[in-house]
C-alpha cells in the first residue's frame, strides 16, 4: 500500500510555487459508468474520463455486448453513420491517426504547414510555422507559401479557448483565396457537442479529423470532407474499434444524450462561477459543450494568455479534489467532461466538494 493521500496543510503550502506537481497519481484498477476505483480501493467520480474520450462511461453494457458482433460490422456502416452525424460528403475511418499520411500527400509542392500556438501538435512534422490563435493578422502574415493549415476549431490543449467571432471564418476564407488546404482537428471535440464543432460552428473546412471518443476511447479515427484526396485514400481498420464506434454512434452519442450532458455541464459550470464570485477567487471558467476548463487567472484568448494562468494553484485545487473523491481535469491545461454516464447526483456531489475545496483554497491563498 502506498502512502495515504491525507497530508498536513504544509503539504499544500509548499506547493504554491511554479514547479508544483500532483505528487501522488491515482492508479486506476477498475471503472463502471462515471466511477473508478484505485488500487487502494478508493472510489472516485471521474470527470477526466481519459481526457474526454470515454463518452459512454466505463464498462457500458451496450458497447461491451457489441464486441460479440465484430465480424458482422462493415467499415462502410460506420463511415455512413459518421457522414450523417457530421454532415460530410466523404468519410474514411482508420485505426491510427491519419494526419501524417494526409499531410505528406498534401505538401508535395509547397512544404510549409501552419498551425497555432497551443494547439495539439504532432511533433513528426517539419517546416511548421505557428500563428497566434484569435489573431487574424498573425495568420495572414504567416500563411504565405503554406500548403496546409491544421487547427483545433475549439482548442482544448491550453484549456478550452474558443475562437473569437468570425475568426475561423476569416481563416477558412483567406486559405481558400491562397489555395491552402484547411484541416480541422477534432480529436478532442469530436463528441463534445452533437455533430462536433463542425456542426456547432457552421464553418466548413476542406477536411476534418475525429478521434477515439467515436469508439469510447478505443483507437479509431475518422477523416471526412469533400477534398479530392478522400476519393483515393484508404486506411487500415481494426474490427473491434469499428464495432464499438457503431454502438457509440447509434446508442450513446445521440442528440438527446449529448444535450442532457450539456445541460448538466451548464449547471456545474454555473455553480463554479457562483463559487468563484462568492469566495472572491481570481479564477475563470471556459466551456464548450459537455466540457469546461477552470483557469486560476484571467480567461485566455490565446496560448500567450494561457501561459499567465497559475498551474500551481490549479494543482493544489486538483489534489484537494482528489482527496475528496473527485477526479477533475487532467491538469491545468485540460478540461473536465460530463459524459453520458454522469448523473445529476454526480454533479451535485462535485458541486459540494468544490464548495469545500475552493473555500479552503481561498483561506490558504490569503
Describe the fold and architecture.
- The protein is of the alpha/beta class and 366 residues long.
- The chain has two domains: 9-55 and 255-365, Alpha-Beta Complex (Aspartate Aminotransferase, domain 1), CATH 3.90.1150; 61-252, Type I PLP-dependent aspartate aminotransferase-like (Major domain) (Aspartate Aminotransferase, domain 2, 3-Layer(aba) Sandwich), CATH 3.40.640.10.
- 38% of the residues lie in helices and 17% in strands.
- The protein has 13 helices and 14 strands.
- It has helices at 9-13, 49-52, 61-66, 75-86, 99-106, 136-142, 167-178, 196-201, 239-252, 255-279, 303-306, 311-323, 344-365; strands at residues 28-32, 35-38, 43-46, 90-94, 112-116, 128-131, 146-151, 181-186, 207-210, 221-225, 284-288, 291-295, 326-327, 336-337.
- The strands form three sheets. The chain has a seven-stranded mixed beta sheet, sandwiched between helices. It has a four-stranded mixed beta sheet with strand order 1-2-3-13.
- α4 packs parallel to α9, α10 runs parallel beside α13 (344-365) and α12 packs across α13.
- The longest helix is centred in the C-terminal third of the chain and has 25 residues, at 255-279.
- The protein is globular.
- The two termini are 35 Å apart.
- This is Glutamate-1-semialdehyde aminotransferase.
- One of its GO terms (molecular function) is glutamate-1-semialdehyde 2,1-aminomutase activity.
- Its cofactor is pyridoxal 5'-phosphate.
- It catalyses: (S)-4-amino-5-oxopentanoate = 5-aminolevulinate.
- Keywords: Isomerase, Pyridoxal phosphate.
